[in-house]
Amino acid sequence: MTLVALFGLCIFLFWYCGYPQALCYQEQNQLFLWSADYFWHDLSVAGGLAD
To answer: What InterPro entries does the database record attribute to this sequence (predicted)?
Structure first.
């Protein structure tokens, strides 16, 4: 049980102190792609904008 808590604390400290911008950066890249290339790529795949 103590080992699990220590592992959880290490994971938390890594994301909180060591690399906090990684999650936000990934979200920005996936949520806000509003270019013509992105639009045409979405239309070219099966399902188009409904996918």
So the answer is: DUF6057
Task: Compute the average pLDDT of residues 7-32.
Answer: 77
Q: Are 43 and 49 in contact (CB under 8 A)?
A: yes
CA 7 and chain centroid, separation: 22
Threshold 0.85, pTM exceeds: no
For tokens 């060591």, what's the residue?
A: 18
Give the whole-number percent of the chain exceeding pLDDT 90: 20
**CB distance 8 to 2 below 8 Å:** no
Q: Is the dihedral of CA 26, 32, 34, 39 positive or negative?
A: positive
Domain ranges of the chain: 2-50
Residue 47 three-state SS: coil
